[in-house]
Design goal:
The complex is a heterodimer.
Chain A (H helix, E strand, L loop, with lengths): L8 E6 L7 E7 L2 E8 L4 E6 L1 E2 L4 E2 L5 E5 L2 E5 L6 E3 L15 E2 L1 E4 L2 E5 L1
Chain B lengths: L3 E6 L3 H11 L5 E6 L21 H4 L6 H4 L2 E4 L4 E5 L4 E4 L4 E3 L2 E4 L3 E3 L12 E2 L4 H11 L4 E5 L3 H12 L4 E5 L12 H13 L2 E4 L4 E5 L6 E4 L4 E3 L2 E4 L3 E3 L2 H5 L10 E2 L11 E3 L4 E2 L8 H15 L13 E5 L2 E7 L8 E8 L4 E8 L5 E7 L5 H9 L23 H6 L5 E3 L4 E2 H10 L5 H8 L9 H14 L16 H11 L4 H8 L8 H13 L14 H4 L3 E2 L5 E3 L10 H13 L3 E4 L5 E6 L4 H10 L12 E6 L13 H12 L8 E6 L13 E5 L4 E5 L11 E7 L1 H18 L6 H7 L3 H9 L7 H13 L4 H7 L1 H4 L18 E4 L2 E4 L9
Parallel strand pairs in B: 1-2, 1-7, 2-3, 7-19, 9-16, 10-11, 10-16, 11-12, 18-20, 32-33, 33-34
Antiparallel strand pairs in B: 4-5, 5-6, 8-17, 13-14, 14-15, 21-22, 22-25, 23-24, 24-25, 26-27, 28-29, 29-31, 30-31, 34-35, 35-36, 37-38
Helix pairs in contact in B: 1-8, 11-13, 14-16, 19-25, 21-24
The chains are: A mainly beta, B alpha/beta.
Bound molecules: siroheme, flavin-adenine dinucleotide (FAD), iron/sulfur cluster and FE2/S2 (inorganic) cluster.
Chain lengths: ~110, ~850
């Protein structure tokens, strides 16, 4: 249900630009955002593209998967993993990533930042 | 008989353990607990984790309802303020007065605060309870320079916690001339300091703090030697002080330096009153560790229940629990001549220091210290505690795992049944082995559930793991090496399943044989199996997102997020034209070039967007992928051989090229390297390779399972004086056998080390065909060879694959603008890591 909030949805890309069960990188207002289409769970996630570990713009190229029931992404550099829904670091470090709401309408993807 | 009332003062770790223990005893006891802290007992040992990923809920020692279920009255936030020992009555701050039959002190200790002027200033903290940590966490947001007074176990833990909270500039101030003065010696301390430095911790030794500088808030420390240290947050961790004030007021005997005096039954000077944990003084000693506290709790509970049990002191061996820093001390770490001989090992290169103190007859281990590498801690501790005989050459104990790959299971066998493996929970070897044999526990988690072993400080977990494996092996049980939570199969089992069911994509494999949605462990393993089995283009069928990051973009990722390009140069032979092409491409796309250790050329620093264009040009000039990114054949090094060399027996370059072209692109459990030398001078270093070939007068000698890298190992002779055709046959069989049976990321050398029967068995399989698999394997290999395609050629020509090589999908022509290079010796290099938040 749509509610009246101040969230501003920004057009990110078309569904066919994304990759099933993987991530792509989107540039929105000069911010790099990693957008994941977790097809196996039929869910979309958006997070910051920067891995907080060594601050590399890379998370969109990470492998996604699950830990128990938690959806996660693993950074390609040192395999630190982050929850896609909450952004928390699942490898026992104290760093987390930002996550953003995603919606799909008419084959177009919107991200709220 | 009327129930006996037992009042417990203090709801800390040991007080809680006492409640557990006495609840399980026979007899009718009514327990009433008074705790000063507002929350029920929690795991103080893992307090630091509360600053990290653990919440209070994770730390509680029991469920909320536990006390109720056990009919225990718990009064939290209500400390006892007075005791009337003649009326046997306690009075709480909130005004309760309760009569007791037995009274138990479990009041623990508080941080000792030295009388330094200024300790009351804002920004000075203690490190003892949840409240302290909440205050510290809040204050660190406005602090930049940290200091910790006290370089003991706790001080170092607190200092590391400050660094982890973002105070990168933190110093540890220690009065003694070394760190952890009670546990380690000076050389160990030096090694430890170097290690801590790399984590961002500076150590100031022999510093006595004179006063704390600053008006209202702390601004720094001033030392007796008139030097100063800037700091805006300080943690004091200079030792502990038993909480004996209430006992003292009640007239119980107190030690001269504090602590409630107890006998071996934990009884104080009043026979109805007991004391356990850090407030109790037994034989002039306060035990500042949880394991002895637990033992005391058990002793007091047993005594009250009328059983016979005595406390007879406790081993104070400890391991520092800092991520990435191994420090352990056991037995008597300092004993030396004339009472003992010491064996020392100091490796400044690797940051390792080890010390063993052995009896002068060389037969027993008395104690020791381990810094930098402490994997043998548990076994050494057991050797001391059980007075086990030392091997003839005790110095071998310092070298850790032997290179032959044999584990220390012989040591486990020698351990007596009553050896205490988990001292926190008092669990013996026999109990753990029983859990495996009788309760079917097959991993550490289930052993922990059954026996509680490993649920305390966790230091014994590696040993429990070894014991489980050892016991299962003894029973002839098969040890499952399952890949991860998503697949309950070993790599070898999955190989067969995928093959029989002819599965071609990761998703199919997961749907058929797995659960959940996969992860970064199983995806590359399955992808590698699919590639080894079918040799199809790895980026097709949705398998691209299941590839390890290097495979996914057919290039090695570098710092900053650019990639390297390594064209195949078989045998290291290259024409001038091709050299020119490489130069031109490198110039055009601004790439750093380097000759690699594998006789080829690596071009570094390519943007993701440029990769297909670079490869298009290389392919046009006749190059193909070098698979430097894949777990596949890398290079077959060659020496120049008989075509030019005056010693050369055969044409090693031609044979190297033939071999490289045969096995290129084939995926395996780990990378494969090879070499062909034209004579025994061995200029191609063939004996350091997964498979190496050396020319002889009569043909070739074939060596297998060699390895460079971190644990070098020479290859072993598999067959001698064979002709080229036989050599390739043997190689086909050898490689297929390895691909089929090795664990993920296991090089051939390790694979052979784990193989029962070793090289003789392998020779029997490969040369004598003892498994009757040769024909199958040769056919399978030929099928893989026939299916070869250059992945890069396929990638640049397939628009669906090619379109993935962009950084921004909504701005495909833009490159990642955060990538930075610097200049060096006329070429570019990647800039260092961006400032990281954690280490
Ligand atoms: C480029 C090169 C260094 C050089 O400038 O010479 C190199 C570079 C890397 N090596 Fe290496 N190794 C290179 C020769 C070697 C050699 C020497 C050799 O092959 O004769 C060895 C020791 C021999 C051996 O492997 O037995 C070597 C042992 C390793 C190891 C340790 C392997 C082991 O089993 O212990 C790793 C780590 C791994 O693979 O897990 C590694 C991993 C790496 C990686 C892939 C690290 C990574 O994941 O990013 C480096 C990638 C660089 C890049 O981005 O392209 N590299 N590496 C050499 C490329 C050779 C080639 O043309 O393909
Ligand atoms: C950060 C940290 C790390 C540690 N790491 C380790 C480790 O790795 N290994 C190890 O073995 N040990 C470690 N320890 C020590 C270990 O935590 C203690 O040995 C253990 O907690 C002692 O238990 P206790 O019940 O005696 O005291 P405590 O756990 O301190 O409990 C005593 C309780 O009694 C309460 N109390 C005091 N007076 C009264 C009163 N008058 N009325 C009511 N309640 C009162 C206190 O508020 C407290 O809650 C660590 C300690 C800290 C602080
Ligand atoms: S030795 Fe280490 S640093 Fe050098 S190339 Fe190999 S992996 Fe990289
Ligand atoms: S940069 Fe992401 S894990 Fe290290």
């Amino acid at each position: 249900m749509e509610t009246l909030t101040s969230t501003s949805w920004k057009l990110a890309c078309r569904v066919e630009d994304t990759i099933e069960n993987g991530g792509v990188c989107i540039k929105l207002d000069n911010t790099q955002i990693a957008l994941f289409y977790f097809k196996r769970r039929d869910e979309w996630f958006a997070t910051q593209n920067e891995c907080p570990h060594k601050r590399q713009m890379i998370l969109s190229r990470g492998m996604i998967g699950s830990l128990g029931d938690k959806p996660k992404v693993a950074c390609p550099f040192h395999k630190k993993t982050f929850a896609l829904d909450t952004g928390e670091c699942l490898s026992g470090d104290e760093c987390s990533i930002k996550t953003y709401p995603v919606k799909v309408e008419d084959n177009l993807i919107y991200i709220a930042i | 008989m009327r129930e006996k009332r037992v009042v417990i003062i203090g709801n800390g770790m040991v007080g809680h353990r006492f409640c557990e223990k006495i609840s399980n005893k026979k007899g009718d006891f009514k327990l009433i607990v008074f705790g000063e802290e507002p929350i029920r007992a929690y795991d103080r040992v893992h307090l630091t984790d509360y600053l990290g990923k653990k919440t209070l809920d994770d730390l509680f020692m029991s469920e909320n309802r536990w006390y109720k279920e056990n009919n225990i009255d718990l009064h939290l936030g209500d400390p006892i303020k007075k005791i009337d020992t003649t009326k046997k009555r306690v009075f709480s701050i909130k005004g309760l007065s309760i009569d007791y039959d037995y009274l138990v002190f479990a009041t623990g200790s508080s941080a000792f605060v030295p009388p330094i002027p200024g300790v009351e200033k804002e920004g000075v903290f203690l490190y003892r309870n949840i409240n302290d940590l909440d205050l510290i966490r809040e204050y660190t947001s406005k602090a930049t320079k940290g200091a910790v007074i006290g370089g003991g176990l706790l001080g170092l833990e607190a200092a590391k916690a400050l660094v982890d909270l973002g105070i990168n500039d933190t110093a540890v101030v220690e009065f003694a001339p070394r760190l952890m003065p009670r546990q380690i010696d000076e050389l160990a301390s030096n090694t430890l300091q170097t290690k801590l430095k790399s984590l961002g911790l500076t150590c100031l030794l022999q510093k006595s703090t004179d006063h704390i500088v600053g008006d209202r808030k702390i601004e720094g420390l001033s030392f007796a030697d008139e030097t100063q240290l800037e700091a805006d947050i300080l943690i004091i961790s200079a030792g502990i002080k038993p909480r004996d004030e209430l006992a003292k007021a009640a007239g119980l005997t107190i030690g001269s330096r504090g602590g409630i005096v107890v006998d071996e039954h934990m009884r104080t000077s009043d026979p109805a009153i007991f004391a356990v944990g850090e407030c109790a003084l037994y034989e002039e000693m306060i035990y500042g560790l949880v394991a002895p506290g637990y033992e005391m709790a058990e002793t007091a509970a047993a005594t009250i229940a009328g059983e016979q049990k005595v406390f007879s002191g406790f081993d104070m061996s400890t391991k520092l629990k800092l991520m990435g820093v191994d420090v352990a001390s056991f037995g008597d770490p300092f004993i030396s001549e004339p009472y003992a001989y010491t064996i020392l090992l100091e490796d400044k290169n690797k940051g390792i220091y080890k010390r063993l103190n052995i009896s002068t007859d060389g037969k027993r281990l008395l104690g020791g210290i381990l810094v930098g590498e402490a994997s043998s801690y548990n076994m050494l501790l057991q050797t001391v505690n059980n007075n086990m005989p030392l091997p003839e050459h005790p110095e071998t104990l310092l070298l850790g795992e032997t290179s032959s790959g044999k584990s220390s299971s012989s040591g486990l066998e020698a351990l007596p049944d009553n050896a205490l493996i988990c001292s926190c929970e008092g669990v013996t070897k026999a109990t753990i082995c029983d859990a495996v044999t009788q309760q079917n526990c097959e991993d550490v988690d289930s052993v922990r559930k059954c026996t509680k072993a490993g649920s305390g400080c966790g230091g014994c977990v590696p040993m429990i793991k070894d014991l489980v494996t050892y016991t299962m092996k003894q029973q002839g049980k098969y040890i499952r090496n399952s890949i991860c939570e998503h697949f309950n199969f070993s790599r070898q089992e999955l190989f067969d399943l995928i093959k029989i069911h002819e599965l071609k994509s990761y998703d199919e494999v997961l749907d058929n044989f797995g659960t959940g949605h996969g992860c970064e462990s199983c995806k590359p393993v399955v992808s590698s199996l699919l590639a080894s089995l079918w040799n199809e283009m790895i980026l097709g069928k949705g398998n691209d997102v299941a590839q390890d990051s290097n495979d996914r973009f057919l290039a090695n990722i570098q710092r900053g997020g650019t990639y390297s390009v390594v064209p195949r140069i078989p045998g290291g032979e290259i024409t001038p034209e091709k050299l020119i092409t490489i130069g031109e491409v490198a110039k055009k796309y601004n790439l750093y070039t380097k000759i690699t250790g594998g006789q080829r050329i690596d071009l570094f620093g390519a943007h993701l967007n440029d990769l297909p264009f670079i490869w298009e040009e290389l392919i046009t000039a006749g190059f193909e992928s070098g698979h430097a990114y894949g777990k596949a054949l890398r290079t077959v090094k060659s020496c120049v051989g008989s075509t030019w060399c005056r010693y050369g027996l055969h044409d090693s370059v031609s044979f190297a090229i033939q071999i490289e072209e045969r096995y290129r692109g084939i995926r395996s459990p780990h990378k494969l390297k090879s070499g062909v030398s034209g004579c025994i001078r061995e200029c191609a270093e063939a004996q350091a390779k997964d498979f190496g070939i050396i020319a002889t007068e009569k043909g070739w000698n074939l060596y297998v399972c060699g390895n460079g890298g971190s644990k070098p190992q020479h290859a072993q002779l598999l067959a001698s004086d064979i002709d080229s055709e036989t050599c390739i046959k043997y190689l086909d069989r050898f490689l297929m056998f390895y691909i089929r049976t090795a664990d993920p990321l296991m090089r051939t050398a390790t694979w052979l080390n784990k193989m029962e029967g070793g090289i003789d068995y392998l020779r029997n399989v490969v040369v004598n065909d003892s498994l009757e698999m040769s024909e199958t394997w040769e056919n399978e290999m030929q099928a893989l060879v026939n299916a070869y395609q250059c992945e890069w050629k396929t990638a640049v020509n397939d628009p669906n694959i090619r379109k993935r090589f962009v950084h921004f999908v909504n701005a495909p022509d833009e490159k990642d603008d955060t990538v930075r290079f610097e200049e060096m010796r006329g070429q570019k290099k990647a800039t260092g890591w961006n400032n990281s938040m954690i280490y």
